[in-house]
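Hey, quick one: can you model this chain's 3D structure?
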Amino acid sequence: MSAVRSYAAVDLGASSGRVMVGRVGPDSLELAEVHRFPNRPVRVPEGLRWDVLGLYAGVLDGLKGAGAVDSVGIDSWAVDYGLLDADGALLGNPVHYRDGRTDGIAERVWAKVPAEELYATTGLQYAPFNTLYQLTAARDSAQLERAERLLLIPDLLTYWLTGEQGTELTNASTTQLVDPRTRDWAHGLAERLGIDLSLFAPLRRPGDAAGVLRPEVLEETGLAGPVPVTAVGSHDTASAVAAVPAGGERFAYICTGTWSLAGLELDAPVLTEESRAANFTNELGLDGTVRYLRNIMGLWLLQECLRAWGQPDLGALLLDAGKVPALRSVVDAGDTAFLAPGRMPERIAEACRASGQPAPATPAEITRCILDSLALAHRKAVTDAQRLAGQPADVVHIVGGGSRNALLCQLTSDACGLPVVSGPTEAAALGNVLVQARAHGLVGDLAGMRRLLTRTQLLTRYEPRGGTQRWQAAQARLARG
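Sure thing. Here's the predicted structure for all 481 residues.
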């Protein structure tokens, strides 16, 4: 048997998908992108939908270009799902989490189960698009009435590849229907809310076998079977946190991309009322860990501005933003007012004016406002997480797409008053690959996975500049506004 084996990681983000191939040996870890494809939501008369067939076609094209692999794993964004009928056929395109159907739904849920009790049971932060609220919004719809099975997005694609149905636990924990203490469904809660948990396929854990590629898939991709599919941390953040290259130190992490997910890795959930009020979530990770984190709007703010500006050169824009005075204007990067697409530069300027701050006008000024605001939100999340969990951090690891943004990494170090280690960029795909490799005996426990990452990945360290007083003042100014 070869000492080096190859694994295909399907990593689906909110704006693009990619198929990566990781080659893993006892002391080597290499990752190569073989296919990238757009993920463009489509607005139809009934609302905003995912083009899941286009995504599946991209997955098949990627596997065709991957060459011989020892396993396949899929991770994606959370909360969204497809419904299948009794024949296993998809009932319409999955609804996009930014669709407006959940507006006002949370209040209906809280009338049956108060928000405080909901958090004490599931530990999940309030977000208007949580699967629980989506299912409540879909109640009495023709699709849900016909549905025999609900599959979260990575589980749906796994089903199409293998014919096998399952619900991977790290992603299931984002539905607000799982008890993080038992790591199982919250049956009593679902019953009170009239949600039929039999819609979900049986739970499976990262590393579990999820089937083998169907003969038709082998024929279309040119792969020689059997090719197993392995359940990974199918929520992309679970895979990304597994790929944080921490060497045993007390660390915080920020998974950056369309969203920033900032927090700590814990052994047990924090289910206090204070934690709920601070809007922290307890999602499940590998090996009994809990991802204790806060959702921040992330680089979505900049992505939407770039779209509005006609996609200017990002490198030049960041250079110009670095010359803009720091902390002139900031916005709340966690505010759901920025959730919907469209008019982002104007909305940011309006938010600054409304809080009595100068309104940024040029692309460089708006970009600096966004990056300062993200660093400020990172600071608050990291600080709050340490206080609420009673677990200090000595370093902040930034992984994902934002790890390439040197200005954002430096500002985050300045704001937190802590060293920042940035990288790897493709953390979710690396975590995906490493869980597959571990299932095949190539790497050891989570600590062993991280040691391999530390030895093999390009990492950059940033040291904080100056004190944090100006960041404290900006945070106080934002709170007053």
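One thing worth noting: The longest helix spans residues 363-389.
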